Every structure is written in structure tokens, then in C-alpha cells.
């Protein structure tokens, strides 16, 4: 426990900054656990897989090489990682955007928080509140957990799981895999040939444009769950449900802009018996 700025000596793993002064803490080549005090601290982990918690102040935290964990609780906290310094995680009890060269973000607590990734392939995990999550760049993996979450995939495609709650899940312009899980979810594949699964609950699968690719719905259930397909009238240029045709053998769903042209825009892979475009598609 140090009440002054301090550097860990060899073979010592843990450092706690004591008092209320704005002091600094420095690790060593081991996997250190360094905890700041209530002031604004500067903390360097250096080598090893470090666990850095700046405490209540607006802290500057540098993990160095190794796979480091950071705990962020102040909007003034800054996490700094250089290129190729390991795989790092931020645990945030506030709304947070990942800084450069940090891979993963976990929201903690129960507050309604926002999370934003960066250009890397991020893993982002929400908390039990209602989260707004942006994957940003990269091929991201995003879990909403509990709460009514709004999630946008990264620009490079990826995996989204809404988990509990009534979630709104939006794919990017690449190939995404989207799971609603429990709750009444809105699922939008957007660009790319996406895999969409509603899970339990009355889910809605939204299609906005014929140019977005051919999405596959794995578990459409109009009967028990009350799932629906939503189609943007402006994007499809139609207000007539008779222009939608379903092949009950293959699960292919077509739009007929003219009598002699059919365009496949979705596949209902589980080929639900009794699916009726005039009852199970909603134009809006």
C-alpha cells in the first residue's frame, strides 16, 4: 500500500495507492494488480497480464504488453494500449467507447448504458439495463444480455445476440448472424446474406430493400409465437401483398415487381406449414 507514487520492485505483484493525493503507480514485468485511489492517478502496468482499476478519479491507465483488464468508472478515465500489446478488456460501469488497440468491452452494473466498439474485431457484452450498443468497425460479437437493447453490428459483419428483453437488432452491410433469443424482438439484417433467428417471443423480421441480399430466417413461427415479416413499402415499391409468393417446399420468399419477374429476398429455412404472405407479412 503506497501513499506516494510508487514502482513495484521485482517479484511483487500487487499495488494499492492509498490516501487522497494524485499519485502514480507503476507495475513490473509480472502480471500485476494495481488499484488507484479517489484522486486522478496515472498507472502503468508494463509487462504481464495486468488488472488495472484507477479508482474514483479521472485516471490514465497504460497496460503495456500482455492481456490486460481495465476497470472504468469515470468519464475522464483514459485507457491507452499500443498496437500488438495483447488482447485487452475494459469493464465499464459508465457509457464507454473503446479506445484504439483495445479489443473487448463489458458493461457492468444495472444502469442503462451505451457501448461503442472501435475498428477491431470486438467482443461487446451489455449488462442488465437497456443498452445502446454500436459495434462500429470490424467483425464484432455482441451480447445484449438482459434489458431491452438496441444493437447495431459492426461494418464488417459479425454475431449479435439480444438475449433477454425486447431487443432491436440491426445487422451491417456484410454477412451477420443475429439471434433474438427471448422476448419480442425486431431483427433487421440490412446488407449481406444474413442468418436471422428470432428465438422465443413474437419476433418481427424487417426487410427494407431488395438490394440488401437474401436473408435466411431459421425459426419463423407464425402460429405459436406470432412472428411477422415486415416489408418497407417504399423500399420494395409495393403496397400489394399479392406480389409476395412463398414456396412451401424450399422456404423461398419472392417479391414479384411485375407479373413475369420474381426476386427472392428471403428464405424461411424451417418451412413453416401454413405460412401465408397475405397474413404473415405486414407492409408499412
Short characterization:
By secondary structure, this protein is mostly beta strands. The chain contains two helices and 29 strands.
Radius of gyration, in angstroms, nearest whole number: 24 Å
Biggest sheet character: 15 strands, mixed
Number of β-strand runs? 29
Whole-number mean pLDDT: 98
Structural class: mainly beta
Describe this structure in words.
With 284 residues, the protein is mainly β. The protein has helices at 233-236, 277-280, and strands at residues 6-7, 14-16, 24-26, 33-35, 42-44, 51-53, 60-62, 69-72, 78-80, 89-92, 96-97, 104-107, 114-116, 123-125, 132-134, 140-143, 150-152, 158-161, 168-170, 176-179, 186-188, 195-197, 204-207, 215-217, 228-231, 244-246, 252-258, 261-268, 281-283. The chain has a 15-stranded mixed sheet with strand order 2-4-6-8-10-12-14-16-18-20-22-24-28-27-26, with no helix packed on it. Strands 11-13-15-17-19-21-23-25-29 form a 9-stranded parallel sheet. It has a 5-stranded parallel sheet with strand order 1-3-5-7-9, with no helix packed on it.
Amino acid at each position: 500500500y503506497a501513499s506516494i507514487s510508487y514502482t513495484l520492485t521485482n517479484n511483487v505483484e500487487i499495488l494499492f495507492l492509498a490516501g487522497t493525493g494524485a499519485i502514480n503507480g507503476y507495475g513490473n514485468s509480472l502480471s500485476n494488480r494495481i488499484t488507484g485511489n479517489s484522486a486522478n492517478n496515472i498507472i502503468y502496468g508494463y509487462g504481464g497480464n495486468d488488472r488495472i482499476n484507477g479508482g474514483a478519479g479521472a485516471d490514465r491507465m497504460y497496460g503495456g504488453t500482455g492481456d490486460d483488464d481495465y476497470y472504468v468508472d469515470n468519464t475522464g478515465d483514459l485507457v491507452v494500449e499500443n498496437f500488438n500489446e495483447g488482447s485487452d478488456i475494459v469493464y465499464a460501469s459508465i457509457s464507454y467507447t473503446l479506445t484504439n488497440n483495445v479489443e473487448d468491452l463489458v458493461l457492468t452494473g444495472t444502469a442503462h448504458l451505451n457501448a461503442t466498439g472501435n475498428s477491431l474485431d470486438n467482443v461487446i457484452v451489455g449488462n442488465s439495463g437497456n443498452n445502446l450498443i454500436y459495434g462500429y468497425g470490424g467483425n464484432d460479437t455482441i451480447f445484449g444480455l438482459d434489458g431491452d437493447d438496441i444493437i447495431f453490428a459492426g461494418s464488417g459483419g459479425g454475431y449479435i445476440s439480444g438475449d433477454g428483453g425486447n431487443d432491436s437488432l440491426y445487422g451491417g452491410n456484410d454477412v451477420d448472424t443475429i439471434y433474438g433469443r427471448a422476448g419480442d424482438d425486431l431483427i433487421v439484417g440490412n446488407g449481406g446474406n444474413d442468418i436471422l433467428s428470432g428465438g422465443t417471443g413474437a419476433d418481427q423480421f424487417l426487410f427494407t430493400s431488395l438490394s440488401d441480399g437474401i436473408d435466411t430466417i431459421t425459426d419463423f413461427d407464425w402460429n405459436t409465437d406470432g412472428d411477422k415479416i415486415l416489408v418497407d413499402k417504399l423500399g420494395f415499391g409495393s403496397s400489394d401483398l399479392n406480389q409476395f409468393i412463398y414456396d412451401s417446399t424450399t422456404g423461398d420468399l419472392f417479391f414479384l415487381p411485375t407479373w413475369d419477374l420474381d426476386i427472392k429476398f428471403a428464405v424461411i429455412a424451417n418451412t413453416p406449414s401454413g405460412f401465408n404472405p397475405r397474413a404473415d407479412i405486414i407492409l408499412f
